[in-house]
Specification:
The protein is α+β, with helices and mostly antiparallel strands and 151 residues long. It has a single domain, classed as Sufe protein. Chain: A (Alpha-Beta Complex). It has 4 helices and 4 strands; from the N terminus they run αβββαααβ. The chain has helices at residues 3-18, 66-79, 84-99, 124-141, and strands spanning 31-37, 42-51, 54-63, 148-149. Strands 3-2-1-4 form a 4-stranded mixed beta sheet, covered by helices on one side. Helix 1 packs across helix 2 (66-79), helix 2 (66-79) packs parallel to helix 4 (124-141) and helix 3 (84-99) packs antiparallel against helix 4 (124-141). The longest helix is centred in the last third of the chain and has 18 residues, at 124-141. It is globular and about 45 Å long.
Length: 151
């Protein structure tokens, strides 16, 4: 990844950390899940309203590092209006991206804005930060109430 692209990606992450999208509690949410990363202390709650298999609304609350918060912010922005199956597919693609399963130069067209997390694979300890919100979302999506932990 060239230095200009890295700089752009870092800026997007910092912007979403500073002013996260969908950072709120959905009152009377139809789905809710909690996540925790004991390694760095990130905590996140994901709230969802799902109607006929479609994510009508999704939000998050919590505390964490810039990568964790930015990941949750972008995730909630991207998943609104998606069908359950689409959300699960995006989770898989995102997870493959941050864990390096897509290779050193991944085709990120399908991921759109989420491609900003391509560099996370270079920092294995940060993979859990980037994926915490996503694992928590999967639990909420599937109505699982067990707290997600990255251990």
């Amino acid at each position: 990844m060239d230095s200009e692209l890295k700089e752009l990606y870092q800026q997007v992450i910092l912007d979403h950390n500073k002013s996260p999208k969908n950072f709120r509690v959905i009152e009377n949410a139809t789905r809710h899940a909690e996540g925790y990363n004991p390694l760095c202390g990130d905590r996140i709650d994901v709230y969802m309203n799902i109607t006929d298999g479609v994510v009508d609304d999704i939000s998050f609350k919590g505390e964490g590092c810039a990568i964790s918060k930015a990941s949750a912010s972008l995730m909630t922005s991207v998943l609104k209006g998606k069908r359950k199956e689409e959300a699960e597919k995006l989770f898989e693609k995102f997870h493959d991206l941050v864990t390096g399963k897509l290779g050193e130069k991944p085709d990120t067209d399908e991921l759109g804005k989420l491609a900003v997390f391509a560099g996370v694979q270079e920092f294995p300890v940060r993979v859990k930060c980037a994926s915490l919100a996503w694992h928590t979302m999967i639990n909420a999506l599937n109505n699982k109430t067990v707290k997600v932990t990255t251990e």
